[in-house]
């Protein structure tokens, strides 16, 4: 810290009366009188309020790099400009946040609750072609960034969850409840692979979905082969032989901003059995040598699940938009 400049002599110059007011052109003193401090003790015999400190609104002094006094209030042009820009940006961010809140018509917390509630009702308010489009484009979704196109070949009737999951997976999902289960099965452009995508609409609230998601993450339930989702096999389609033993790769995603579990499971369309199914995330890893990984079945499951989930989020946004 730079040394403070020496204070001026306490006595007045010899040619001036000690109590005379200084000329208007002479600068005022910069050293505060300790006796005028708000915490200074009263003079002997004084009473509170007998004298009040004199408060000056002159520019305070600081010191430059050479320890020369300079008024703190006099900023350089660049500093003033920077301060002005920061002020404008700050006001813009604040007003933008307020405007966004107005446009949404809700506070952030209330808006989140409304979004969660709207998502839970999509199973009966959104056409099946929007939840499971007849054709899904997967740009860059294949192995090595290749494009994929999936065609829907079957849609399961909307139903409850009875007999829709293996016992262990049904038990893991039970805390969230089952409101509705929607499923559709797709095939790739060559009809070599089949993939079932599911949207499980639960009865859980936001806290329940967060708890379920945390459990799946901490216990790695989405990576256990005894917790694979079941496929939906439809007669007279390339997925007619797509059963439990044909499952090759899968993914399960528990959403926390919606009461929905998104999953997908893929396999070969020729009905071959799979002895070493693999989580889609592992099959997508560079250097994975399992049959599902080499065939790109991890890409099939993950790619379709991702795009169906994106469509779900888009429908949630549309359902919560305020009319103009």
Fraction of residues in helix? 25-40%
Give the neighbour order of strands across the main sheet. Answer: 3-4-5-6-8-7-9
Query: Main beta sheet: strand number and arrangement?
Result: 7 strands, mixed
Q: How far is the N terminus from the C terminus?
A: 59 Å
- C-alpha Rg, in Å? 36 Å
- Roughly what fraction of the amino acids lie in strands? 15-25%
Provide mean pLDDT, rounded.
Answer: 77
Order of helices and strands: EEHHHHEEHEEHEEEHHH
Q: Strand tally, please? A: 9
Shape: globular
What is the SS-derived class?
A: alpha+beta
Uncertain ranges: 1-63, 65-69, 71-75, 93-107
Q: Total helix count? A: 9
Would you spell out the secondary-structure blueprint of this structure?
Blueprint: E1 61-63, E2 69-71, H1 77-104, H2 108-120, H3 122-125, H4 128-131, E3 135-138, E4 148-155, H5 167-173, E5 180-188, E6 193-201, H6 206-218, E7 249-254, E8 260-268, E9 278-279, H7 280-283, H8 291-295, H9 297-320
Parallel strand pairs: 7-9
Antiparallel strand pairs: 1-2, 3-4, 4-5, 5-6, 6-8, 7-8
Structural write-up:
- With 324 residues, this protein is of the alpha+beta class.
- The protein has a domain at 109-320.
- Helices cover 31% and strands 16% of the residues.
- It contains nine helices and nine strands.
- It has helices at residues 77-104, 108-120, 122-125, 128-131, 167-173, 206-218, 280-283, 291-295, 297-320, and strands spanning 61-63, 69-71, 135-138, 148-155, 180-188, 193-201, 249-254, 260-268, 278-279.
- The strands form two sheets. It has a seven-stranded mixed beta sheet. Strands 1-2 form a two-stranded antiparallel ribbon.
- Strand 7 (249-254) and strand 8 (260-268) form a beta hairpin.
- The longest helix is centred in the N-terminal third of the chain and has 28 residues, at 77-104.
- It is globular, with a radius of gyration of 36 Å.
- The chain starts with 60 loop residues before the first strand and ends with a helix.
- Mean pLDDT is 77; it is low at 1-63, 65-69, 71-75 and 93-107.
């Amino acid at each position: 810290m730079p040394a403070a400049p020496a204070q001026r002599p306490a006595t007045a110059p010899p040619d001036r009366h000690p109590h005379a007011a200084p000329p208007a052109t002479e600068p005022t003193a910069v050293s505060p009188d300790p006796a005028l401090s708000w915490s200074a003790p009263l003079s002997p015999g004084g009473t509170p309020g007998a004298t009040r400190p004199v408060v000056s609104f002159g520019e305070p002094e600081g010191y430059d790099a050479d320890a020369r006094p300079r008024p703190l209030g006099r900023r350089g042009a660049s500093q003033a400009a920077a301060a002005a820009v920061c002020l404008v940006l700050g006001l813009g961010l604040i007003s933008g946040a307020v405007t966004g809140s107005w446009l949404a018509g809700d506070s952030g917390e209330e808006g989140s609750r409304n979004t969660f509630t709207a998502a839970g009702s999509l199973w009966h308010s959104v056409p099946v072609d929007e939840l499971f489009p007849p054709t899904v484009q997967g740009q860059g979704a294949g192995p090595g960034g290749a494009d994929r196109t999936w065609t829907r070949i079957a849609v399961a009737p909307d139903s409850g969850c009875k007999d829709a999951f293996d016992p262990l997976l049904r038990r893991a999902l039970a805390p969230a409840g089952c409101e509705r289960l929607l499923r559709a099965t797709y095939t790739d452009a060559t009809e070599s692979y089949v993939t079932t995508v599911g949207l499980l609409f639960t009865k859980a609230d936001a806290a329940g979905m967060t708890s379920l998601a945390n459990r799946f993450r901490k216990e790695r339930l989405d990576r256990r082969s005894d917790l694979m989702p079941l496929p939906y096999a439809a007669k007279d389609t390339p997925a007619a032989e797509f059963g439990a033993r044909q499952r090759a790769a899968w993914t399960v995603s528990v959403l926390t901003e919606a009461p929905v579990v998104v999953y997908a499971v893929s396999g070969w369309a020729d009905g071959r059995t799979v002895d070493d199914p693999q989580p889609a995330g592992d099959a997508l890893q560079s250097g994975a040598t399992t049959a599902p990984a080499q065939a790109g079945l991890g890409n099939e499951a993950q790619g379709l699940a991702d795009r169906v989930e994106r469509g779900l989020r888009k429908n949630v946004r549309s359902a919560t938009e305020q009319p103009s």
